[in-house]
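Deliverable D2.4 — example input (structure tokens):
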């Protein structure tokens, strides 16, 4: 049975916004779309187009880069406008998102309401990709490893210096300073113009929530209906957000221990949550800190629990990354995160942070607090970070699981506070990363009713499990 939002009333939000064509470069839509080297193609059934945008918006007549867009066009007279989507990362490609929405929410009416638009953000895959020439090991340098003491921090610092230097000397080093959230938000506004729309609706998850908040803060009058899912805090993925991965681990770990304890006859990890937790520390002693990172990654989705439990029960080799897990994804993630924020540069800072985290978050804290290449970043920020604010229309829906391992509730509450009267906030009694298209019917309904019907909760609300 579907669960209703836990509030007294919901109100219709806003009337339809008519689309008005603007002078903009014509988009030539063709198919098939790029397939990321995957079979079957994740972009099957979509059209794609190219759009040139300035590399540096301070020099709009200078060098241009190319973005690739995808579209699943509405054929309904009920069409409202366009829904732009972003999957997060940063560094995650987005061309397949309209097809994913069609598969998961094809009967919801959203495909009638919108032309659904995906895009590979600047620097990603089919949109002028960047590189740092990262080895397979270097691609995982942002988070971890778990630092047992100062020597581990020093070792990670040495590796981080090398990666930062590689980014500065790569064949795309001239693009590096312009890989920022602010510029990606400006690209989104160029996409809006090219589509001939006065306003755009938007759905973004994870880092995509911060990108959406940035767009809504930079271009508030050009936003229609905005949904931000699994919220990064208002300062983006800075050093504090990085350290909060440990909060997310702690918030979420109990879901797995309860699941495993209920299946002790299958996996033999413990009959109680306390026994499963003790097993975790036993495995760390036996196998090393890699089990910590494996566990954190698996906490993103309940569907990963059987594989994680099997790995705990009997060690297996980690799966190799897929075609989208290469150098480009990791390189762009580094470039955006390091360019966006002012990261501490002292190794001593990270040594102290690791020691604090060992006390406050012993399960994963010293991994989340360890140093990154951002401490040695080779370029200075070209502009301040985007300031998220509450000035603009009240047209933002925030949705957040209570126990998210990557974007924990503490940061989501900060984002909600900063957006003030612009937003309504729906929490979901669930674990994992991402609300929309997942198992909680109430959370899904909140998103669909807003995007399709313009119905926002009258007040902040909660969805029970």
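Example output (designed residues):
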């Amino acid at each position: 049975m579907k669960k209703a939002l836990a509030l007294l009333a919901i109100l219709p939000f806003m009337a339809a916004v008519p689309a008005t064509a603007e002078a903009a470069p014509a988009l030539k839509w063709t198919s098939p779309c790029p397939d990321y080297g995957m079979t079957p193609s994740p972009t099957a059934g979509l059209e794609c187009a190219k759009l040139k945008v300035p590399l540096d918006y301070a020099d709009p007549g200078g060098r241009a880069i190319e973005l690739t867009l995808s579209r699943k066009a509405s054929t309904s007279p009920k069409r409202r406008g366009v829904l732009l989507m972003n999957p997060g990362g940063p560094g995650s490609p987005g061309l397949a998102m309209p097809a994913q929405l069609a598969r998961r929410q094809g009967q919801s009416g959203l495909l009638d309401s919108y032309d659904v638009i995906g895009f590979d953000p600047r620097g990603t895959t089919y949109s002028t990709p960047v590189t740092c020439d990262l080895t397979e090991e270097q691609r995982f340098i942002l988070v971890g490893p778990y630092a047992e003491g100062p020597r581990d921090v020093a070792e990670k610092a040495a590796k981080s210096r090398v990666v930062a230097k590689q980014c500065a000397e790569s064949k795309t080093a001239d693009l590096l300073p312009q890989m920022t959230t602010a510029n990606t938000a400006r690209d989104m506004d160029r996409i809006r113009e090219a589509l001939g729309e006065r306003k755009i609706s938007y759905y973004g998850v994870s880092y995509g929530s911060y990108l959406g908040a940035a767009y809504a803060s930079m271009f508030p009058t050009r936003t229609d209906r905005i949904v931000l899912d699994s919220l990064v805090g208002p300062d983006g993925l800075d050093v504090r957000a990085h350290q909060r991965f440990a909060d997310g681990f702690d918030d979420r770990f109990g879901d797995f221990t309860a699941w495993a304890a209920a299946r002790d006859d299958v996996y033999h990890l413990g009959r109680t949550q306390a026994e499963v937790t003790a097993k975790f520390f036993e495995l760390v002693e036996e196998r090393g800190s890699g089990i910590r990172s494996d566990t954190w990654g698996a906490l993103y989705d309940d569907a990963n629990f059987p594989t994680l439990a099997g790995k705990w029960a009997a060690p297996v080799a980690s799966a190799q990354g897929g075609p989208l897990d290469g150098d480009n994804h990791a390189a762009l993630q580094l470039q955006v995160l390091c360019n966006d924020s002012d990261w501490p540069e002292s190794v001593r800072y990270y040594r102290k942070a690791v020691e604090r985290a060992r006390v406050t978050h012993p399960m994963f804290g010293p991994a989340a607090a360890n140093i990154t290449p951002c401490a040695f970043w080779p370029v200075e920020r070209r502009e301040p970070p985007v300031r998220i604010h509450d000035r603009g229309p009240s047209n933002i829906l925030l949705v957040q699981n209570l126990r998210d391992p990557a974007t924990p509730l503490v940061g989501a509450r900060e984002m909600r506070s900063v957006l003030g009267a612009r937003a309504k906030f729906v929490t979901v009694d669930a674990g994992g990363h991402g609300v929309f298209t997942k198992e909680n019917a109430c959370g899904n309904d909140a998103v669909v009713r807003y995007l399709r019907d313009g119905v926002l909760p009258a007040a902040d609300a909660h969805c029970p499990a």
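Residues 1-22 have pLDDT under 50 and may be disordered.
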